[in-house]
Amino acid sequence: MTMPTYLDYNATAPLKPAVVEAMSAALAETGNASSVHRFGRLARRAIETARGQVAALVGASQHQVVFTAGGTEANNLALAQHRSMRVLASAIEHESVLGAAGDAVVIPVDRDGRVDLNALERLLGREGGPALVAVMLANNETGVIQPVADVARIAHGHGAFVHCDAVQAAGKIAIDFAALGVDTLALSAHKLGGPQGVGALVVADRVELQPMLRGGGQERGRRAGTENTAGIIGFGIAAELAARDIETISRLAGLRDEMEARLRRAAPESIVFGAAAPRLPNTSCIAMPGVAAETQVMALDLAGIAVSAGSACSSGKVKPSHVLAAMGAGDLAGNAIRVSGGWRSAPEDFDRLVEGWTTLWARLGANRAGSAAPAA
Ligand code: PLP
């Protein structure tokens, strides 16, 4: 039996072998990083090494990294700093930002999925006191990269704070925290070959971070709770490897573009969302008109290919994508799947996807596209 093909790295990436090795060794050790004896000191040293590795991935300083239990917590921690402020969030933010933001003012995006800077300027110009602006670095569904440095310049010009969710961008494109100019930046280990349940918030020196979790004084009083030492060590190794392998990942863009071209040749009616904008090299969001995304995901799964429909993060249920809706996709939003490769993807994986997708198109799509038939 052939091995299944995994093209759902934006949901989670396979652990890198060096991460498994380092974490297995760490799990076999004892030590609470807050203890003063040698066991504690060894755990502390390992955590600080990882902090340096994560900081280096995004060009930040070690002391600016606060470890969390994932990207969701990092986003919540950032938004919790600004509870009394009005929040402006892009229409395509991840649920972990939108959920934490409450009644946010929505910053629209254009048809390519890029945040509308003129609208941001206008919205900030309205009366309403201090504001927080939340714009992600790259979208999880389309891979579209946002003009975050411009967002930060405009927002700071209005005295606003800026939070950036860089969970999907990290390890796929180079990130320079200082050059982006944001106040806080969220990261997650499991999108770059590290473990699930570990993340970080990178915090600019000008921000005095208030803890969301209170109790012990861990993370210099910024996040209470005994550190997940093995997870943090795994995150550190994954970050170091991701920084080193960024060139390799950028080459995925060639395979992705070729795959899209082949799908478009087979089905000229198909749509690639965000294709005209700068995108992450590994992500493709493609609609097969007339065929429900769930049907495609299930049929591809039967053919041994794992992809997802819209955002898989809140999983189980597939609901219409707010990201594609914001881009004006209309009904096509329900026909789009996300194909996302990563560090272990090979050309054959994309070949299999093309084969599975075009077979499905021939069976279901070709006679449905453009007709009034409801999506299956
Ligand atoms: N932000 C984005 C853009 C994501 O894609 C995800 C997960 O898919 C998260 C945040 C949440 O990260 P985590 O799964 O580590 O909580």
What does this molecule look like?
By secondary structure, the protein is α/β, with parallel strands linked by helices. The chain has 2 domains: 5-13 and 247-365, Alpha-Beta Complex (Aspartate Aminotransferase, domain 1), CATH 3.90.1150; 17-244, Type I PLP-dependent aspartate aminotransferase-like (Major domain) (Aspartate Aminotransferase, domain 2). The chain has helices at residues 17-27, 38-57, 71-80, 95-101, 117-125, 148-157, 177-180, 218-221, 229-244, 246-250, 252-266, 293-302, 322-326, 347-365, and strands at residues 5-6, 65-68, 86-90, 105-107, 131-134, 161-165, 184-188, 199-203, 271-272, 283-287, 305-306, 308-309, 336-340. The strands form 3 sheets. A 7-stranded mixed beta sheet has the order 2-8-7-6-5-3-4, sandwiched between helices. Helix 7 links the parallel strand 6 and strand 7 (184-188). The longest helix has 20 residues, at 38-57. Bound molecules: pyridoxal-5'-phosphate. Pyridoxal-5'-phosphate binds next to helix 3.
